[in-house]
Amino acid sequence: MLRINELKLPIDLADTLIHQDDQIKSALLKRLEIPVNDLIGFTIFKRGVDARKSHLILYVYNLDVEVKNEAKILAKFKKDPHIKPAPDTSYHFVAKAEHAPKLRPIVVGFGPAGIFAALILAQSGLNPIVLERGKEVRKRTKDTWALWRKNILNPESNVQFGEGGAGTFSDGKLYSQIKDPKHYGRKVIHEFVKAGAPPEIQYVSHPHIGTFRLVGMVEEMRNTIKSLGGEIRFESRVDDIHIDNKQVQGVSLQTGEFIATNHLILAVGHSARDTFEMVYKKGIYVEAKPFSIGFRIEHPQGLIDRARYGKSYSEDILTKLGAADYRLVHHAKNGRSVYSFCMCPGGTVVAAASEPNRVVTNGMSQYSRNERNANAGIVVGITPEVDYPEHPLAGMEFQRKLESHAFVLGGGNYNAPGQLIGDFLANKPSTIFGEVMPSYTPGVTLTNLDTALPEFAITAMREAIPAFAKQVQGFDLADGVLTGVETRTSAPIRIKRDDDTMESINTKGLYPCGEGAGYAGGILSAGVDGIKVAEAVALSIVKL
Predict the structure, then answer these.
(1) pTM exceeding 0.90
(2) Is the bond preceding residue 512 a cis peptide, omega within 30 degrees?
(3) In this model, does residue 323 exceed pLDDT 80?
(4) How many C-beta atoms surround the C-beta of residue 16 within 10 A?
(5) Which end of the chain is more exposed for a tag (fewer CB within 10 A), N or C?
(6) DSSP H helical segments within 417-502, as ranges?
(7) Based on the number of CB atoms within 10 Å of its own CB, is 242 exposed (0-12), middle (13-18) or buried (19 or more)?
(8) CA pair distance 540, 544, nearest whole angstrom
(9) What is the pLDDT of residues 446-490, one digit of tens each?
(10) Helices 112-123, 211-227: inter-axial angle, 10-degree rounding
(11) What are the two backbone dihedrals, phi and then psi, of residue 289, each rounded to the nearest 5 degrees?
(12) Per-residue pLDDT averaged across 50-59, rounded?
């Protein structure tokens, strides 16, 4: 099998959302310089969009191709970096248990990392027990809507806690910049498709699913794990980890129940602050790590579409392309980096608080991405060495301080503070909305965001937004809206682990995993980390 990269075809020749097989086939024959009878077949591995020239937008295909005389073609194109043997991207289990262990492995948390850790363990015959502090996904959805519509927060069931993790109420993005030499990301994608995700996520360059589809998929994956011998318990918060002679012995739940285990995967997500405190008090090694803080920014989606795709394309072409996105970075004069984070085309800004009397924002899109606004986090990087050097958990307190102040600026009742972009740049309070109406619910209280973040962050963002407008025309739209605060970009701590065994560096049998442990950022990378950690657990158990 050959992998042919960078095969480009004009988008206006595509009949629907993709070129027809005969169009791709014709381009392949020309590219490989072979007769039609030598081409046995092909599949699309990845498809991206090249919109650098607004007058000629291209689909860029990476294809897995089966041909006659493969060795001859490889020899002919041996200097061509875009024609190579196709790698093996199939998943291979590292261990299979003949019998489930007496002490079953426990997975704490049922977000992407926990789901894939439990799935791999179940597929390996190890009958994991999953302990999730929140509710199953449909009950959790009702609690989340209670905050958005009725200003009622359930600290144990919200955007951050519950089946599916924080990614359930986001854009459902399935792409990452992590190194993935073993192609675990393909395993994640394939399992999502099996669970009901649209098949095109297997090849589009920036796949996403959306919240409504994720709900059904998460339920299907839960059922798969249970059918393979796994047990999943909701509303089961772990309040203590029992350790003897630096070896995990089990956990205690909030009910007082003790469950014994020697293999504990901790996949609690980036907002489980009470768990971080417990872990630190137990003497498990924790260190502060960098994260980012900022605001959500909203523009009309049409403005972003025109800026990225140009103004000359028909509605039919724009429909094929879908809502445009962006990725922006600016290095400010004060030494801070400002960048776009979790960009949600055609989406909404959502309330993402998990603690009372604090305001947190995040972004979400449905699969259709057809809401009126585009939104993204515009965030500034911060580091423990410079900004919170006092204590391993100081970054967590840094977050809490900003979120509490945002609650006050918003007027209470979980309204978020907001400001028009033009007023933010001019440092004057906003008093009335313009062209862009914010999508955040419960509601946005207009104010001056000057005190919502540290001075260095405000200064860097005021410099960055006009700079971003040079890349995305209209990004500094005066009527665009900023909503605060975005503080949960990633975990503020890392539960450090051994690179080989994947165990905590000072606690045997404890396997820090995913975003909450500081080893992932997003659905795909968290799922990949869950697979890696589950493999380490499987190898440890099968060797016993």
Answers:
(1) yes
(2) no
(3) yes
(4) 9
(5) C
(6) 421-426, 455-469
(7) middle
(8) 7
(9) 999 999 999 999 999 999 999 999 999 999 999 999 999 999 999
(10) 30
(11) -135, 165
(12) 82
pLDDT tens for residues 86-105? 999 999 999 999 888 999 99
Residue 319 identity:
T
Contact predicate 206/173, CB 8 Å = yes
Contact 298, 46 (CB under 8 A): no
Digit-coded pLDDT (tens) for 140-197: 999 999 999 999 999 999 999 999 998 888 766 787 878 899 999 999 999 999 999 9
Task: Band the pLDDT of 214: cuts 50, 70, 90.
Answer: confident
* pLDDT score recorded for residue 66: 96
Where does the pLDDT of residue 14 fall: very low under 50, low under 70, confident under 90, or very high at 90 and above?
Answer: low
Six-digit token string for 328: 């922006």
The tokens describing 13, both together, are 């020749």
Q: Are 76 and 92 in contact (CB under 8 A)?
A: no
Please answer whether residues 523 and 174 qualify as being in contact, where contact means their C-beta atoms are separated by less than 8 angstroms: yes
Output phi, psi for 361, to 5 deg.
-110, 155
- Average pLDDT in the 273-301 region? 98
What is the gyration radius of the CA atoms in the chain, in angstroms? Answer: 24
Torsion, CA 185, CA 167, CA 231, CA 519, rounded to 10: 60
Question: What gap in Å lies between CA 423 and CA 403, rounded to an integer?
Answer: 22
The DSSP string of 271-334 is T-HHHHHHHHHTT---EE--EEEEEEEEEEHHHHHHHHH-SSS-HHHHHHH-S-----EEE-TT
> Is residue 10 over pLDDT 90?
no
Structure tokens at 60: 């860029």
Grouping H, G, I as helix, E, B as strand and the rest as coil, residue 239 is: strand
How much of the chain is helix, strand and coil, in % rounded to 5? 35, 25, 40
Alpha carbon of residue 202 to chain centroid? 17
> Rounded to whole angstroms, how far apart are CA atoms 504 and 282?
12
Map out the domains of the chain with their CATH numbers: 2-85 (3.30.70.2700), 106-286+493-543 (3.50.50.60), 291-486 (no CATH)
> Going by DSSP bridges, is the β-strand pair 361-364/337-351 parallel, antiparallel, or unpaired?
antiparallel
Identify the three-state secondary structure at position 93. coil
Provide the β-strand partners of residue 484.
295
The region that residue 69 occupies, defined by phi over 0 for left and psi between -120 and 50 for alpha, beta otherwise, is left
Q: What pLDDT was estimated at residue 49?
A: 85
What is residue 243's predicted lDDT score, i.e. its pLDDT? 98
Least Cα distance to 232 among 95, 122, 144, 345 occurs for 122
Cβ atoms of 7 and 44 closer than 8 Å:
no
64: DSSP letter: E
Enumerate the H helices of 327-454 as residue ranges: 384-387, 394-409, 421-426
